[in-house]
């Protein structure tokens, strides 16, 4: 059943194999943490310097076209319209020049925008891919520490914040280029009028900056409240059954309504800020225009400038206020991007605790002998989860672990493929310390099936072939048969091509477990760990799986964590764990007759499991007791809303 190298068969639909994903273009960020965030992003930026230069050139052409247009318009008014009626043919020449400038400007603006945004989105892609790649190298202890929501936020909104600065930043810099060019032409026309025209711009800048300063924290608040609502909705959808079972619908609506009120309050704050500053900014420019008209009018009457020059100044004024109004936004975007980059770098700077050591070697052939030598382990705290565990499982043997909940069974299962490293002692595979082997080689030899298997939103076939993407359809079907899954899969409307919902929740717990077993069976590892992997499967089906597994286990080292007597009977030897220590070992029958703690543990385990499950259900539904009540949006308690 070992996987062949053939291409995926015709059953293949969506393949979760990440090897198909194109690699990021850029090498990564600068590892020197003493550098600023933009400097650290240089290797990423450098990878796009071609597009950047092209975007910059196109933007320069756009700016020149934008500045030249009013200048020629003014000249046209002053020269062509003022000319005697017989000599007005020159107007047509001006019109053609204006058309040419417009065409060049439009084409250049297209390329400027297209290339700038292309660069920004490519950088976003690079950053996101780097982040994802790095996350996939991090150890289990990192994921124990960091909340999933936080990581999703880093991969989404933080990457987006950096991207926005990179998209807007160059555009705004180019707009400032336009400002200096226009300023030069204005000064050559009339210095006094230039000063009058520029008077309103500092006010535009100050108003813009004040507006952004007010908006910045409130828009963060809106974002976080949106995320809060998303979490509540997600929990209500995922835990819909629990809500119904405990009749907590009204309470949940209350929780959601409260969160929605808080979002509405924050959104209205944002609206108020926009409503206050937006019109103010627009009208300051109007005042500037009036001043230009007044002073410019006197200058025309004095004969110092032509009426066309007033048109030039008025057009420049409207054009120039945009970068000033946006400068505040740029500053805020820069602040936000710096904070976001810091959070992204925090993940990228995280070194995997579990990684290949220098000199780590591959173990090409594995017999399957597993040994735990005086193993001590804790999950980062003082509380020892395993304490002095010594155990040797000869190649080809089947050992079952039994013990009360929390006695350390799953922890042993996690130490063998090195999800965590021991604090003292060693875990050995064929006599080699697992820390001396490459992770890739180690994990190729150890297949693990957990109680709560994770399935991808892909077809059943692809889920089974996840560890061996090149497996043939026959191999997939054979693995499904061993796992007792073939029957129910063929009864589904689309059989093996059925796409399972998120995390495989469209299947029952037992069906998911069987697919997970098939997935591991297909990899055909010399060491198989089944951590309560059949707990959700009915006794008859489990019996059939055992028959299949019995054949499969032949000559294979198998470690089973189980509570059911039927599962334990598969084992050559049973290990009884108590508080992270081995309390007794022997065959199932031996322990049953000679070890009272064993019989007690079996009964105890089942009772405790039941109590723990009920406790978990209760914990999940304990939410603040907030009843839904109609709200008066005009009389909200400000302190509560903050
Ligand atoms: N990721 C973790 N971080 C911190 N503590 C953990 C973690 N996983 C398990 N523990 C703790 O380690 C101890 C042993 O857990 P383990 O899952 O190995 O027990 P178990 O015997 O498999 O229990 P069960 O039968 O309930 O699955 C428990 O006290 C548990 O709370």
Q: What does this protein look like?
A:
This protein has 22 helices and 10 strands. With 642 residues, it is an alpha/beta fold. The chain folds into 3 domains: 24-189, ABC transporter transmembrane region fold (Up-down Bundle); 191-304; 370-450 and 525-616, P-loop containing nucleotide triphosphate hydrolases (Rossmann fold). The chain has a 6-stranded mixed sheet, sandwiched between helices. The model is unreliable at 1-21 and 607-631 (pLDDT under 50). The structure holds adenosine-5'-triphosphate. Adenosine-5'-triphosphate is lined by residues 144, 379, 385, 403, 405-411.
How would you summarize this macromolecular structure in one to three sentences?
With 642 residues, the protein is an alpha/beta fold.
